[in-house]
Amino acid sequence: MDPLSVVVSALLSLVVPIIVIAIRQTVKLHRGEIIQDLASVFHSAKEPEAGRMIPSFEFVKFKYFVDSGTDRGQRQDFQFWSWAVAIVPFFLVVSAASYISIEFLQGSDLRPLLGDHRSLNLYLIAVSAAFCGGYLNSIKTLTQSIQNFDLSPSLIVTLATEIFSGLVLGMIFAYASNSLLGYVPKSPTIEVVAVLAFAIGFFPDAAQRTLVGRSKLRNFKRENLSVYKYTLATPVELIDGIDTEIRNRLSDFHIATTQNLATANPLMLFVETPFGVYQIMDWVAQAQLCASVGPEAMTAMWKLGVRTLFDLERAALDSRCRHPELLQSIGRQLLGQKDDKTDFSPDAIAANIQMRLDDPHVHRLRQIYMQVGERIGEKHWRLLARADGIGPRSYDATGIVFQNPNRIRIANSGMDIRPNDFLAVVGGKNNGKLLKVGGVDRTLVTVDQDLIDEDVVPGGGSVKLFRINP
């Protein structure tokens, strides 16, 4: 037994997973600090606890803020013993396969260990190549799992299973090649077996599907290969600002198409990637437009000034941007008419756009835009409310009375205030407060925060209320 082979096998099978687990803990601590900094932007101390809930941000915290202890009632991180148990099968498979491969590549005689067979070298070539493919795929998967923070004991066991499956399938392929073509040293068969065995080890699932698909097993459900011509994916390079290098970074987070990016959590991407939050928000908004209208319509609407799904929303639903000719140009792209002869009903175009906006991922992104707009300032609140499809509804609060502890008396403002709406106060003694409406009784509105007594009289100053209701 060669000591060098034993040392290398131990490094590959034991040291590598331990290092990966240690890096995972470092990533957890580092990204936890980023999340705490991000909380200062999306959570204001002036807001009540119930009003601070942003689902996108809460999902980020839920992913990274896990306790390492054993207290009941709290979400726990994986315990040490679970990692130790998961490493055992990985160690057994990798150490055995790597030792045999290293000894074979060094030219050692393995016949006393594996038996005397005239085609032993062919099988060893297949095993070595399949192991190299499987191990490289495991390293890639472990790296991606660190980036995504989804490394778990079950993943390590799964990788050990995939490596073992690749070894078995590689040997089956070598046996089939030997039976059909025979083993002749230094023949092209050796190179073919080595290359295909590497591919089998790297893609064991694809190899299994191919093997079963080409078999003659009865009553086995096979894939309809003809449907693949309808499954063309749009790469993320179509998005303005994303090049091949950025795509490679995003692929570590399983984002390779515009649909993947359209459904991604922008705050999660900000925490896990080096890109800025505004940049990511713009990418996701572009991707949502592409996923909704298709790449051809999207690129055609660039000339109309429509880059994101929110631009499409403003063009149809915001009176400040809506124009008959612009709406017709957009309608021809959405409804399939490329010529200038066909006119569509403006209501039909608006209804089509409204239908595209009613999606949880769009609502999530709008909520983030709303929070950012609130921090930037009042004049940037174009996405804060969707009353009649136009910007935020505001009320010039002349004659309003703020009454401690939590009541507002308001004249007939024309604002459709309902329970669970949010009212933002701009100006006056209660400036900056975000109030959740608890109840409405004619001109009396009860909210969830304490107010400072104030009677806003004509000429007494500029105080406005904004209804924030996505």
Describe the structure.
The protein has 470 residues and is of the alpha+beta class. It contains 17 helices and 8 strands. It is 55% helix and 7% strand. The termini are far apart. It folds into 3 domains: 3-213, no CATH class; 236-362, no CATH class; 384-468, Elongation Factor Tu (Ef-tu), domain 3, CATH 2.40.30.20. It has an 8-stranded antiparallel beta sheet, with no helix packed on it.
Name its key features.
470 residues, Elongation Factor Tu (Ef-tu), domain 3, eight-stranded antiparallel beta sheet, 55% helix
How far apart lie the N and C ends? Answer: 69 Å
Give the number of domains: 3
Based on secondary structure, the structural category is: alpha+beta
Could you give the count of β-strands?
A: 8
Instruction: For the largest sheet, list the strands in their spatial order.
Output: 1-8-4-5-6-3-2-7
Average pLDDT over all residues: 78
Question: How would you describe the shape?
Answer: elongated
Unreliable stretches:
383-392
The tally of helices reads 17
Portion in strands: 5-15%
Please write the string of helix (H) and strand (E) elements. Answer: HHHHHHHHHHHHHHHHHEEEEEEEE
Portion in helices = 40-55%
Major pleated sheet: 8 strands, antiparallel
Radius of gyration: 31 Å
Can you summarize this structure?
The chain contains 17 helices and 8 strands. With 470 residues, it is α+β, with helices and mostly antiparallel strands.
Write the SSE topology.
Blueprint: H1 3-42, H2 55-64, H3 80-105, H4 111-114, H5 120-148, H6 153-181, H7 188-202, H8 204-213, H9 244-251, H10 258-262, H11 266-272, H12 277-293, H13 295-301, H14 309-317, H15 324-335, H16 346-357, H17 360-376, E1 393-396, E2 401-403, E3 407-409, E4 422-426, E5 434-441, E6 444-447, E7 454-455, E8 464-468
